[in-house]
Amino acid sequence: MESSVVSEIRRNGDITLGQLRQLLASDDEALVKNLFEQAREVADGIYGKRVFIRGLIEISSHCKNDCLYCGLRRSQKGAVRYRLTDEQILDCCEKGYRLGFRTFVMQGGEDAWFDDERMVRIVSEVRHRYPDCAITLSLGERSDESYQRLFDAGANRYLLRHETADKEHYEKLHPSDMSFDNRMHCLETLKTIGYQVGCGFMVGSPFQTVETIFKDLQFIRTFKPHMVGIGPFIPAHDTPFADQPQGSVETTLRLLSIIRLIHPHVLLPATTALGTLHPLGRERGIMAGANVVMPNLSPTEHRKDYAIYDNKICTGDEAAECRNCTEYRMRAIGYETVVDRGDYRS
Ligand code: SAH
């Protein structure tokens, strides 16, 4: 059965606040099933029965920021801080390349150790060694000049979740020394420079409402990012939000589908956070319209210390295990992981 509301969203490439409210609150199983199916159909139509993989390298657990939700915030006294050396990062890439990754994502806290000089050196070396690979950075807010230098050194993509498109909500999730306007400025700058840009938000973050989610979706429609990362909020111990309820897997899946319907070509990961809250969370994410997974390539000895939230999965695995596990899981639902940069298709 085709649901008329889902078909309408698909046809319009847009959603109203009323439709969003209806889809998020619905307990009509046929409607929700149809939402997932239509989103999957749209993704299949553009990307086929293929899932893109990104090798995630968590380069630093140091952070100067104090985001209220994050287990790596600077006030987190119990956090174990580490930084990868240039050699360790290059080793991760080498391993990743052999395992079939053609995108490397270097992510970390906002760590002044990884200043422009160091990052340009690392990016240039990875670019030189792997001319056929995409280099994605996810290092938070930097200066316009820094983003430009890293792009010139060979970086292609940048992930910077906007976290929420509602300024008041943003200010409840972050301390006063962080600014919504600067976050948005960074996203605009990245796009202007020529990066493929990813924004995104947590589902079920404290103070989130249907109205703030609606703003997130409107932002996605107007900004037209190449990638959108969403995953459930998961409380991290000892943070101000440690006792807040976690986000819902079900709501995350519905939002993945809605994002696919309103922005069909987007690269949409089934995130580790989704896999953390449900044993088949990533598979369900793909079946709801996601088309990317990001297995971990970080050195096993540091995995558990990149603790942005509690109980993160895959912290004891080797890179090859994560690669194999991902392939196996995707095959089980009828999808192939591909040796490909996995660029945005316009
Ligand atoms: N410092 C970088 C990378 C941050 S980690 C940056 O600022 O972009 C990547 C993402 O993890 C964040 O953007 C946030 O949306 C998400 N995250 C952080 N804490 C989380 C938590 N407790 N639960 C779920 N996701 C979280």
**Distinct small-molecule ligands in the complex:** S-adenosyl-L-homocysteine
- Report mean pLDDT, rounded to a whole number: 98
As a percent range, the share of helical residues equals 40-55%
Q: Multimeric state of these chains?
A: single chain
Helix count equals: 14
* Helix/strand structural class: alpha/beta
CATH topology name:
TIM Barrel
CATH architecture: Alpha-Beta Barrel
Distance between the ends: 30 Å
- CATH superfamily annotation: Aldolase class I
User: What order do the helices and strands follow?
Assistant: HHHEEHEHEHEHHEHEHHHEHHE
Shape: globular
The major beta sheet can be summarized as:
6 strands, parallel
The portion of residues forming beta strands comes to: 5-15%
CATH class: Alpha Beta
Query: Going across the major beta sheet, what is the strand order?
Result: 2-3-4-5-6-7
Short description:
45% of the residues lie in helices and 12% in strands.
Can you give a write-up of this model?
This protein is an alpha/beta fold. The chain has one domain: TIM Barrel (Alpha-Beta Barrel), CATH 3.20.20.70. The protein contains 14 helices and nine strands. The protein has helices at 4-12, 17-25, 29-47, 86-98, 116-129, 144-153, 167-173, 180-193, 210-223, 249-262, 272-277, 281-287, 300-303, 319-332; strands spanning 50-53, 55-60, 103-108, 134-138, 157-159, 196-203, 227-232, 292-293, 336-338. The strands form two sheets. Strands 2-3-4-5-6-7 form a six-stranded parallel beta sheet. Strands 8-1-9 form a three-stranded parallel beta sheet. Strand 3 (103-108), helix 5 and strand 4 (134-138) form a beta-alpha-beta unit. It binds S-adenosyl-L-homocysteine.
